[in-house]
Amino acid sequence: MTEAQVSGSRARTRQAIIDAAIDVLGRNPAASLGDIATAADVGRTTLHRYFADRADLLKAVGAEADARLARATAAARLAEGTGASAVQRLCQEYFDLGNVLSVVFNAALGAGDPEHAEPAGCDPEFAAMVERGYRDGTIDPALPADWVQSLIWSQLYAGWAYQGEMGASRHEVLRLILRTVAGAIAVRPA
Length: 190
Known about the structure:
CATH topology of the largest domain: Tetracycline Repressor, domain 2
Shape: elongated
Number of domains: 2
CATH class of the largest domain: Mainly Alpha
Strand content: under 5%
Helix content: over 70%
Structural class: mainly alpha
Order of helices and strands: HHHHHHHHH
């Protein structure tokens, strides 16, 4: 094998472990490293060759989750259309992240990891989207941007919990989330 092939193989194995960790930890935050190794189809020794301990693996999982969240946010095109339509796209993109969101939620709720907890305050792009919604009349100006952000996160969490507990389809759960969020942010008549 050439050095490039070895390097590519190592990168694929590392990514397979991270992907398996996201899937396993998304379903069971207390899963063992052995469970993750089995899901990645590697031995524990191989897992430990890439990640010395659980903390190292969780750090890599957190970085992967952050990267996927950033890609989903970019795909939602927050600067396009009405504020409310951008909120809907963001909900859809985030919902499609699946177990990545479960890992983020569990990290925020469980260990209280400030690096992966819901951010205090909105990033400027999110705040600009909400402000645009105020101006275009699609988001109730009585709702602060931080509240809209919390609403989205809570509805996504509720959707994943509902899907798991009730066995509802992905399509039905996404429909419920989008309907709930649209109703919650809509401008109310005075």
